[in-house]
Amino acid sequence: MNLPVEPPILPMLAKRIDELPIGTEWVYEPKWDGFRTLIFRDGNELLIQSRDEKALNRYFPELIDPLLEQLPNKCVLDGEIVISRNGALDFDALQLRIHPAASRVKLLSEQTPASIVFFDLLAEDNHDWREKVFSERREKLEIILAAAKSPIHITPATDDLALAQDWFRRFEGAGFDGVIAKAKDNIYESDKRTMFKVKHERDCDCVVAGFRWYRKGDRPAIGSLLLGLYDDSGVLQHIGVCGSFPLAKRYELVEFLKPYRQNAVADHPWKGAFEEEAGDGNSSRRPGGQSRWSQGKDLSWEPIRLELVAEVAYEHMQSGRFRHMAQFRRWRFDKKPEDCTYEQLEIVPPEELKAIFPENR
User: Fold this and answer.
1) 116 and 77 in contact (C-beta within 8 Å)?
2) Which residues are known to be catalytic?
3) pTM to 2 decimal places
4) 13-199 classified as CATH 3.40.50.1370
5) Domain limits, the chain
6) What tens digit of pLDDT does each residue of 192-206 get?
7) Hey, which CATH number is domain 202-344, 3.40.50.1820, 2.40.50.140, 1.10.390.10, 1.10.10.10?
8) pLDDT tens across 207-223, in order?
């Protein structure tokens, strides 16, 4: 490729804050829940680059022709690959696309075709736009994508704070992560957190069913706590983990959990997963199973008796599990483990994605 911005490069990032910044110098965008991507196009050459600098071309073959047909002959754009189904973004379907079998990828590309939403411009023709302020980059992006049609889109953007706050409330049910704020005079700085993001966060009381060891300490320490909720049938489902403890807390937890480890395996509902470690095909609801997402990580864990309840903060739940690691808040010694059910979760009604993504598939 012969472009003013050559691959691979890292995308610009966002720093998390609690509230949207206020002022006429800000532009707000919905935060899409998909795969971040940089698109490099030079004539017939096209690279779909992931956030970690890997090529994604083989996983999204249905995007190749539309990108070649609709993008300028030479350009570099920043965006997000998403899959929308039934009026919402489907991150689970998106993850399934990263599959080693080309036949499987081809089938899924037909059954659940992806779209790409662009929100920034790095280069066009022989011009490097990264030193231009965002307001100018956005204006140029709107011009070059003025005739774009599905599966190519440009993200909505506004400097109206009230509208951005409305997006934050209404579109969570459609799978959006929150809202991004960009300063109009910002240049494009690769791998720097010069944007801001406000994400959803909720509380949940969970059964603590086990833990994983911390692998970096100089003595035994707790890495993360395994969390569960009871479903309508009374079965304890593994919904994720909480972690990110300070090192002193990790050491403290070793002693705190010690008595709960005694005789924990015998009646543990995840006993099979603990004994097998590799799971039995149901790893989405039991800890310890390896998958193509685990990338060889040590997922071994230790069970504890089901007597502890932890209040955690989480951002988003999808398919009955936390999308990201939850954050520990406090122990709930006043709550019975059997009271930790899915019923406590706030259900956000899906807002039709077509309200801001007109050609929803």
Assistant:
1) no
2) 31
3) 0.73
4) no
5) 13-199, 202-344
6) 999 999 987 778 899
7) 2.40.50.140
8) 999 999 998 877 899 99
